[in-house]
């Protein structure tokens, strides 16, 4: 029995980590794995968009703000334009409220300073549990 | 030196990192993620940081050699480096990053160069300290801890009935013997 399993479908929750920082990738991967998520990592927004375009499904996306090739805001806009309803949480090392609001405007469900803590991930899981 | 003494030394060394301002709360967050499934997690993350940040430091060094200085580019590189340093709780390094970025905003090239030298010093000091710490921790071996039954986490009734295992130590009672 694993946390993050949908009772009706017996499917594990899946999370996509979109970040070009290998340290953040590792921290978020271990954090989410501990909470029972399957995780996949991509290094830029384009790879995230391509994954969804290919039919991949995720319950949660952790989207870094600044990435090469395609950044977080652009990737988020594209995913929402494609009709993706998955919870997308922005992660950024920019702490200014104005910068976070600008990222939220791209279509995020939430935005936090990275790295995320266990408490924040837990609060996101509560939201996911309510929305399933 | 018996095992308990080595453990005490390791604990004292660890505490000194916080007392002397080398590390902050974020390092504790990393420690909370270490367990039997990821027994060397903290050391792995720190190793990854030092490996990856070599590239970031090189970018900044190259940008500082240009004339005239491109302060936007310097700021961008340092923002990345600061973010990475924050992830492992490198408090003094992070502080130097902040100072550097202030000098970038002010267009002060000399300030940038001076701060960068200090940053590299702090970066190297922390690396040496952590290498010694991890080596001692490995020699000491794992410390025995016992856990009382974990309290229930109010997440979501449907999900919670399937919840097993890990809860951050803030929500967990532990004692050692």
What's the SSE blueprint?
The complex is a heterodimer of chains A (132) and B (177).
Chain A: E1 14-18, H1 22-34, E2 38-42, H2 45-53, E3 60-64, H3 72-81, E4 87-92, H4 97-104, E5 110-113, H5 118-131
Parallel strand pairs in A: 1-2, 1-3, 3-4, 4-5
Chain B: H1 3-19, H2 25-32, H3 41-65, H4 71-87, H5 91-106, H6 109-140, E1 145-147, H7 157-160, E2 174-176
Antiparallel strand pairs in B: 1-2
GO molecular function, one term (chain B): protein histidine kinase binding
GO cellular component, one term (chain B): nucleus
Function (chain B): Functions as a two-component phosphorelay mediators between cytokinin sensor histidine kinases and response regulators (B-type ARRs). Plays an important role in propagating cytokinin signal transduction.
Structural commentary:
The complex is a heterodimer of chains A (132) and B (177). Chain A has 132 residues and is α/β, with parallel strands linked by helices. In chain A, 41% of the residues lie in helices and 19% in strands. Chain A has a five-stranded parallel sheet with strand order 2-1-3-4-5, sandwiched between helices. Chain B is mainly alpha-helical and 177 residues long. Chain B has a single domain, classed as HPT domain (Four Helix Bundle (Hemerythrin (Met), subunit A), Up-down Bundle), CATH 1.20.120. In chain B, helix 1 packs antiparallel against helix 6 and helix 3 packs antiparallel against helix 6. Chain A: This is Response regulatory domain-containing protein. Chain A: It comes from Liquidambar formosana. Chain A: Keywords: Phosphoprotein.
Quick overview of this protein structure:
The complex is a heterodimer of chains A (132) and B (177). By secondary structure, chain A is of the alpha/beta class.
Largest interface: A-B, 31 and 35 residues
Q: What CATH architecture of chain B do you see? A: Up-down Bundle
Residue-averaged pLDDT of chain B: 84
Proportion of helical residues of chain A: 40-55%
| Number of domain units of chain B | 1
Instruction: Kindly state the percentage of residues in helix of chain B.
Output: 55-70%
Structural class of chain B: mainly alpha
Order of helices and strands of chain B: HHHHHHEHE
């Amino acid at each position: 029995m694993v946390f993050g399993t949908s009772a009706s479908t017996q499917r594990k929750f899946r999370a996509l980590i979109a970040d070009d920082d290998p340290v953040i990738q590792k921290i978020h991967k271990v954090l989410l794995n501990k909470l029972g998520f399957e995780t996949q990592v991509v290094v830029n927004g384009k790879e995230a968009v391509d994954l969804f375009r290919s039919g991949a499904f995720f319950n949660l996306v952790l989207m870094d703000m600044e990435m090469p090739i395609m950044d977080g805001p652009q990737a988020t806009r594209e995913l929402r334009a494609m009709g993706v309803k998955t919870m997308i949480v922005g992660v950024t090392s920019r702490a200014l409220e104005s910068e976070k609001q600008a990222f939220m405007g791209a279509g995020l469900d939430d935005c936090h300073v990275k790295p995320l803590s266990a408490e924040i991930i837990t609060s996101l899981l509560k939201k996911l549990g309510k929305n399933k | 030196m018996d095992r308990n003494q080595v453990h005490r030394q390791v604990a004292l060394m660890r505490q000194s990192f916080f007392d002397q301002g080398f590390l902050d709360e974020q390092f504790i967050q990393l420690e909370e993620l270490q367990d039997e499934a990821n027994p060397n997690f903290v050391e792995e993350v720190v190793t990854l940081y030092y490996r990856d940040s070599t590239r970031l430091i090189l970018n900044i060094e190259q940008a500082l050699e240009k004339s005239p200085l491109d302060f936007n580019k310097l700021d961008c590189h340092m923002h990345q480096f600061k973010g990475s340093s924050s992830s492992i709780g490198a408090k003094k390094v992070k502080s130097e990053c902040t100072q550097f970025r202030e000098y970038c905003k002010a267009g002060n090239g000399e300030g940038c160069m001076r701060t960068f030298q200090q940053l590299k010093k702090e970066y190297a000091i922390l690396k040496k300290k952590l290498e010694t710490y991890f080596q001692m921790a490995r020699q000491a071996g794992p410390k025995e801890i016992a856990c009382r039954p974990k309290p229930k986490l109010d997440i979501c009734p449907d999900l919670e009935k399937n919840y097993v295992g890990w809860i951050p130590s803030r929500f967990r009672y532990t004692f050692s013997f």
